[in-house]
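Quarterly update from the structural biology core.
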Amino acid sequence: ANRAAAWIMVMSMVPSRVAFGVGASIRAGPRPHGWSSVPQSAPSTLPRPRNRRPVSCQAKKKNKGGKKGKAKKVSALDAVLKKKPTSGEQEEGKATSAGQHTSVDVVMWLLLVVESYTKAVGKKLFAEQFSIQDIAEKIYDAPFVLLSHRYGEEGEAVREHRFNYANRRALELFDCEWADLVGKPSSSSGEDDEAVQSDRDALLMACKKEGFVENYEGWRVSSKGERFLVKGATLWEVKTSSGDASLGQAVVFTEWEDAEGNTRSVAEEGGAVDGDGDEEAGEVVDLAEAERLVQEQADLVRGLKANLTNEDAEVKEAVTVLLERKAALEALQQAS
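Predicted structure, tokenized:
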């Protein structure tokens, strides 16, 4: 009886419909059979507790910058490109450019240039011997003008070949810096005249067919527009050590004639000499020195591998140098 009375009291206190917001309601469940309660209408709103105030919360608005809109994002690359170099950075850039003629790629190229010249022409570029480490400086400061261009992709037009080397005398003659010439189409060395360019095209094609051309004369123009006539130039194909493929062409000369008809010449000593005699002149580096350099680098690689793996950067770099020295040694062995 007491439980029944308690149940009746509880159910009488629950409204038949309780509001949970607009359009939301819940009905009281069915009453147990045999029991009843007096329904009460639900209040229209729930009573608000005393001493409490409604609080309104809003998310803080983002600053959209008013009419100016969002600021444009600038990539790190854009920032670098737009940044003006300081005087110190400019000097550093000049120093880097000045040292490009001694890079590993240039040294390997010059070894092929010298080797190809000897094989094609039967002459030597130098009368003295020097090591691989000195080849870049020796040719750069040599008493003759030497330039070369490298072939690009298959099907590249003759006038699209680009300079990849010029020694000091060449840069002086064309009145420009290394960065101004290297990477530019070699056709820019001739006047923008169809007759001049056609003559140059014929020269390059003849060289590619025959392997080399001697005693060439042709008009060229400096970066400042000064014309000069190249005299007694030798042009030859630069090939791989095996001779199976041509990589580009190189030219060497010591005399030219300016627009007024005055003959100009670099120093006479140290130029190309015949290689038909019994003398050993013309070896860019002796075989003993090349073999020593290879052995020295091989020992270094073995030492690194004792504590490192083949994937470590130090090992990879050392192996690259070793392969380059082996290639240089092979080139000298084939040329001797």
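Residues 100-285 form a domain with the Beta-Lactamase fold (CATH 3.30.450.20).
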